[in-house]
């Protein structure tokens, strides 16, 4: 299928998403520090928080406790900003949605119907568990839409609960009929977790089941070229980048440039990537203090090193750091400073030099 290119901006209610590239909400990762990193590089048309437990929010509010840690920064940071919430009770969701609109002035309230983690699905009967009960989804969405108006409400789903119970087309119709302003679809089932490949053909087929709201595709977008391919090949209005951006907050700016037909900014050098990671660490420490901030930064540091030569060795050492001094020392000693391609090129050059030396020696001996 040939698609319009470059893809136009699209609307979620009255909000214009331009460029049509969204940052996925990811539990444990997309906190205010990470969101600031993404903003500094640019390229994301809409940024999202981690998913917030609606029931936990209500409990904290009733007990006059501090609001959820996952709402850190939300009140002050730039807009547009989406906050994702989850639960299975329509009244609880509506209550929290209204608070987010009135107190935090968020741009979008997103509902998580896609999380496959057992603690959310089997224990709390939320997230992707609700895909088996579209009627319940309708109740949650419709009540939240009323509570949040005029702020738009969106939904994020998977293809279904398992490969033999794919019901994304039916669910998409329910989402729109309930009043949601956009639908995001991750191209795997809940049972798949993150194994295998996202099925973008299935995502694209959903568009025919929607009348007016935009469709956003999500899954396996780890390069600007894949983002371009998604827009050129599949019937989607927007794309959402998830895990691939965790150690590469510059990925959005690269993808946005590719969509504009401009030269794609190169990957930052390894020293620049290390500097980016240290800036990220400073932001985390500023909010959580040295000890907690250092512990929290461990997983981000592993993301920044992923795919580089020596990443495993670095992860082994950084996984146990608990102070700033330790973190700085481990980064200085072990953070990968050569790419796999550079190591390969060095080895090939060494082998070529050894071959030439052997040939020269053989020629002299003969």
TrEMBL record:
Leader sequence range is none
Q: Which InterPro entries match?
A: Aldolase_TIM, DUS-like_FMN-bd, DUS_fam, DusB-like, tRNA-dHydroUridine_Synthase_C, tRNA_hU_synthase_CS
Enzyme type, top EC level: oxidoreductase
All copies of domain DUS-like FMN-binding, residue ranges: 23-332
What keywords are annotated for this sequence in UniProt? Flavoprotein, FMN, NADP, Oxidoreductase, RNA-binding, tRNA processing, tRNA-binding
GO MF terms held by the record: oxidoreductase activity
**Cross-referenced Pfam families, in alphabetical order?**
Dus
- According to the record, the residues making up region (Disordered) are 345-366
- Catalytic activity from the UniProt record: a 5,6-dihydrouridine in tRNA + NADP(+) = a uridine in tRNA + NADPH + H(+); a 5,6-dihydrouridine in tRNA + NAD(+) = a uridine in tRNA + NADH + H(+)
Name any cofactors this protein relies on.
FMN
The EC designation for this entry is 1.3.1.-
Q: Which PROSITE patterns match?
A: UPF0034 (PS01136)
The entry assigns this protein to a family as follows:
Belongs to the dus family.
UniProt function note: Catalyzes the synthesis of 5,6-dihydrouridine (D), a modified base found in the D-loop of most tRNAs, via the reduction of the C5-C6 double bond in target uridines.
Q: What is this protein called?
A: tRNA-dihydrouridine synthase
Which species is this record about? Stieleria magnilauensis
């Amino acid at each position: 299928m040939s698609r319009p290119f470059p893809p136009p901006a699209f609307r979620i209610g009255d909000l214009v998403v331009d460029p049509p590239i969204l940052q996925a909400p990811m539990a444990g990762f997309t906190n205010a520090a990470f969101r600031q990193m993404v903003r500094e590089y640019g390229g994301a048309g809409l940024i999202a928080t981690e998913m917030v437990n609606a029931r936990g929010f209500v409990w904290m509010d009733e007990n006059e406790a501090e609001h959820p840690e996952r709402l850190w920064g939300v009140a002050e940071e730039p807009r547009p900003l989406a906050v994702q919430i989850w639960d299975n009770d329509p009244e609880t969701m509506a209550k929290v949605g209204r608070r987010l609109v009135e107190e935090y002035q968020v741009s979008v309230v997103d509902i998580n119907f896609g999380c496959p983690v057992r603690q959310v699905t089997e224990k709390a009967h939320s997230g992707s568990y609700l895909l088996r009960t579209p009627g319940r989804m309708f109740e949650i969405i419709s009540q939240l839409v009323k509570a949040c108006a005029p702020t738009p409400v969106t939904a994020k789903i998977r293809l279904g609960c398992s490969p033999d119970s794919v019901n994304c087309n039916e669910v998409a119709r329910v989402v729109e009929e309930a009043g949601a302003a956009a639908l995001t679809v991750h191209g795997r089932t809940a049972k798949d977790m993150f194994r295998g490949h996202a099925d973008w053909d299935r995502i694209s087929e959903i568009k025919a089941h929607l009348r007016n709201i935009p469709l956003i595709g999500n899954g396996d977008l780890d390069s600007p070229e894949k983002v371009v391919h998604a827009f050129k090949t599949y019937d989607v209005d927007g794309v959402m980048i998830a895990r691939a951006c965790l150690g590469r907050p510059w990925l959005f700016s690269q993808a946005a440039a590719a969509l504009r037909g401009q030269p794609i900014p190169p990957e930052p050098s390894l020293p620049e990537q290390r500097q980016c990671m240290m800036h990220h660490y400073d932001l985390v420490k500023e909010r959580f203090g040295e000890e907690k901030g250092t512990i929290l930064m461990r997983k981000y540091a592993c993301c920044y090193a992923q795919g580089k030569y020596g990443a495993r060795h670095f992860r082994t050492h950084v996984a146990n750091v608990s102070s700033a001094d330790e973190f700085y020392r481990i980064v200085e000693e072990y953070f990968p400073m050569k790419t796999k391609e550079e190591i390969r090129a060095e080895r090939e050059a060494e082998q070529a030099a050894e071959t030439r030396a052997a040939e020269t020696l053989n020629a002299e001996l003969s």
